[in-house]
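User: quick one - fold this with adenosine monophosphate bound?
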Amino acid sequence: MSVFTKIISGAIPSYKVAETDDFIAFLDINPNAKGHTLVVPKKEENKIFELSRDAYQKLMDFSYTVAKALEKAVPCKRVGMSVIGLEVPHVHVHLVPLNEMADIQFSQKVTLSKEEFVALAALIASKLE
Ligand code: AMP
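Assistant: Sure. Structure tokens for the protein plus adenosine monophosphate:
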């Protein structure tokens, strides 16, 4: 069972931004940049390009919704998107507010307090349409 499945089941906590029957979005615990959000299908599958075309398109559609809220909530030049999955083998889309190229490099990390994570998740959630 992946760490994200444990988050989805509520077994471990997360800073949740959005949720539907099929997807959840929460803040990355070790963010590249403030507002770095993960969009995750609840059904645990390993690789994004092993999803059905329909599941892939629904994931992109939900990522679009979350990215729009993120761009409104966190000042940035644009929201970037990456898919990696080398650390957690459960499909997820990284949405990262970008101001410079380094923000999308996964070697760069920022530190946030618990209070900052809580406030940020609530702010992004408030911008969802
Ligand atoms: P990757 O699988 O390489 O795409 O990276 C997995 C991402 O998940 C990393 O950016 C981690 O910081 C993030 N991550 C791992 N565990 C958690 C967690 N419990 N809550 C939020 N983000 C996590």
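One thing worth noting: The chain has a mean pLDDT of 97.
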